[in-house]
Structures are given as structure tokens and as C-alpha cells.
Design a protein that fits this description.
two-stranded antiparallel ribbon; 9 strands
């Protein structure tokens, strides 16, 4: 987090509060993750310099840049073309060259690649195992599951073919991914 200038990735109106522990709006109903959550995700992923990473939800590009500072390469996907374009500009302006940003819906993606780490920057109200398909053996998936007021951050590790280790890490609340499955609602 110290290597990447967060203030270069926030909207101009929020430059002075870039490191505040608050949701910084990015437009399209999206928000940057709080710095304390970003730090905990980076710790949980235990990235190595030769790792490849898939990030779902690029936002401003800040967290992708942080991932890129620790890993060999990062592919980030963003559903909103305007946010993707802004993130690309932010990354270029900050000389981040090992991160690519694609416009895509993670729930419609058919990427055949396998990654050492996959991170979802939006929550899943209901866990969705489709993201496990992108893990290489030894790969780690970071995901936040549930609905507010309390959600569970998890690390899912593919320890061998068909062998998953699921660890509960901490409680938090973050915006859900667009098109994530909602749990059934109680009806009288």
C-alpha cells in the first residue's frame, strides 16, 4: 500500500481524504475499498513475485496497482466501460505496466486461464463456486460472502485437484458484485 499513491487513483474531490477509512464513491454506484480492507486482502493472498492474479472489479485501478506491485502480472475485469477507461488512465499515469484492464462481466466470462490468486472486490450475497475454476493448483481466492450488516471474508485455496481449503478470515461489509446471485427473500 505504501508503494502506490492512493491519492492518484481517487476522484479529485476526494484527494484530501484518500486514506480515510470510508467508502469513496467512484460513480456507477461503485466505491473504493477501505484501505484497511485492502491491506487485509493483500496479506491474505500471500502474493509472490511470480504470481499471476485475476481481479474482479477494477474500480479506479488502485487495488490492481497494489496487486501489481506484489505479483508478476494482473488481469483486472470491470463491468463499467467508463471505470475501466479511467482505471487504465490512472495506471498509465502511475507507470504501472503489469496490469491489464478488460471490460467484462465476471458472471459471463469464459476465461480458460488459471491464476495463482483471484480476488473479488465486490461481495457475493450467496457463495458462487464458479470463481474456483480460475485457480491454479495452490491458487488462492479472496471473496466476501453474505449480506450486511456483517459479511464473512474468506480465502479459498485449491490445494490439489478437487481439494479446497476454505478459511474464514474476518468480518466486513462491501458492495456486492453486479449480477451476483441474491438469496431468496422471505415472503409471508
Amino acid at each position: 500500500l505504501a508503494e502506490v499513491r492512493r491519492e492518484d487513483f481517487v476522484p479529485a474531490a476526494f484527494h484530501d481524504v484518500a486514506f480515510a477509512d470510508a467508502a469513496i464513491p467512484l460513480g456507477h454506484g461503485q466505491h473504493m475499498l477501505a484501505p484497511k480492507v485492502e491491506g487485509r486482502i493483500l496479506q491474505a493472498l500471500e502474493l509472490k513475485p511470480d504470481d499471476t492474479v485475476l481481479e474482479v472489479g477494477t474500480g479506479s485501478g488502485y487495488f490492481a496497482a497494489c496487486l501489481g506491485a506484489l505479483a508478476r502480472s494482473v488481469k483486472s475485469i470491470e463491468i463499467h466501460p467508463g471505470l475501466a477507461a479511467s482505471a487504465r488512465a490512472n495506471l498509465a499515469r502511475n507507470d504501472v505496466h503489469n496490469v491489464t484492464v478488460d471490460v467484462a462481466d465476471a458472471f459471463a466470462c469464459s476465461d480458460a486461464a488459471r491464476y495463482d490468486a483471484v480476488v473479488l472486490t465486490g461481495s457475493l450475497p450467496v457463495y458462487d463456486a464458479r470463481f474456483e475454476q480460475w485457480l491454479a493448483v495452490g491458487g488462492r481466492l479472496f471473496v466476501v460472502v453474505g449480506e450486511g450488516p456483517v459479511m464473512e471474508a474468506r480465502r479459498v485455496t485449491l490445494s490439489g485437484p478437487g481439494e479446497l481449503l476454505i478459511e474464514s478470515l474476518f468480518e466486513t461489509v462491501i458492495d456486492p458484485l453486479i449480477h451476483a446471485t441474491e438469496p431468496p427473500k422471505f415472503v409471508f
